[in-house]
UniProtKB/TrEMBL annotation:
This is 2,3-bisphosphoglycerate-dependent phosphoglycerate mutase. The lineage of its organism: Bacteria, Pseudomonadati, Pseudomonadota, Alphaproteobacteria, Hyphomicrobiales. The active site is at residues 10, 88. It holds the Pfam family His_Phos_1. GO terms for biological process: gluconeogenesis; glycolytic process. Pathway: Carbohydrate degradation; glycolysis; pyruvate from D-glyceraldehyde 3-phosphate: step 3/5. Catalyzes the interconversion of 2-phosphoglycerate and 3-phosphoglycerate. Substrate binds at residues 9-16, 22-23, 61, 88-91, 99, 115-116, 159-160. Its EC number is 5.4.2.11. Belongs to the phosphoglycerate mutase family. BPG-dependent PGAM subfamily. It catalyses: (2R)-2-phosphoglycerate = (2R)-3-phosphoglycerate.
Length: 206
């Protein structure tokens, strides 16, 4: 039985381009982001992959990415489940701010701590630990059982919600996970063993 799980961070969004903290704000993809999503679909198609179900967040940029990938695979009508449990980390008061402006306001060191620590949230927002606390139960309850039944599962989500999943799959620690960067539109192809651990992982770079 093939236990296939593919994770894809959404393509570049308008606010990624403008260097803004995005979080739960809802900008769409840029032209580059659309191209990244389509390229992700093409790379998956080149491997002969198809899916039984897709999961995405409640935010436009992830949903758009998911839709474009499925178009490239000829699976436009695939069942797609949307849930805010897969949303990006909530950046609270930082949301919508330019990252350089935030550094001027709070200082380089403080902004770095908010962005790269595991358990220190920005004002009014979530830490990566908080994000994992909502992502992982959803993964265990809704996504993983389908993978273990042999369904081929696509998850199109966000840098931090996916980092929470990668932390578990790759057995990373709270000390190492903050340094992990996930490229936009770059599929991570996991195949799992019967005990839910990772048998293989392939990163489909552009």
């Amino acid at each position: 039985m093939e236990r296939l799980l593919v994770l894809v961070r959404h393509g570049q969004s308008d606010w990624n381009l403008k260097n803004l903290f995005t979080g739960w704000k809802d900008p769409d993809l840029t032209e580059q982001g659309v191209a990244e999503a389509r390229a992700a679909g093409q790379r998956l198609k080149a491997l002969g992959l198809s899916f039984d179900v897709a999961f995405t967040s409640a935010l436009t940029r992830a949903q758009h990415t998911c839709r474009l990938i499925l178009e490239e695979l000829g699976q436009q009508n695939l069942t797609t489940i949307r849930d805010q449990a897969l949303n990006e980390r909530d950046y609270g008061e930082l949301s919508g701010l330019n990252k350089d402006d935030a550094r001027k306001r709070w200082g380089e060191e403080q902004v770095h701590i908010w962005r790269r620590s595991y358990d220190v949230p920005p004002p009014g927002g979530e830490s990566l630990k908080d994000t994992a606390a909502r992502v992982l139960p959803y993964y265990i309850g809704e996504i993983l059982p389908r993978v273990m039944r042999g369904e081929k599962v696509l998850v199109a989500a966000h840098g931090n919600s996916l980092r929470a999943l990668v932390m578990v799959l790759d057995r990373l620690t709270p000390e190492t996970i903050p340094t992990l960067e996930l490229a936009t539109g770059e599929p991570l192809v996991y195949r799992l063993r019967a005990d839910t651990t990772v048998e293989s992982k392939d990163v489909l770079k552009g």
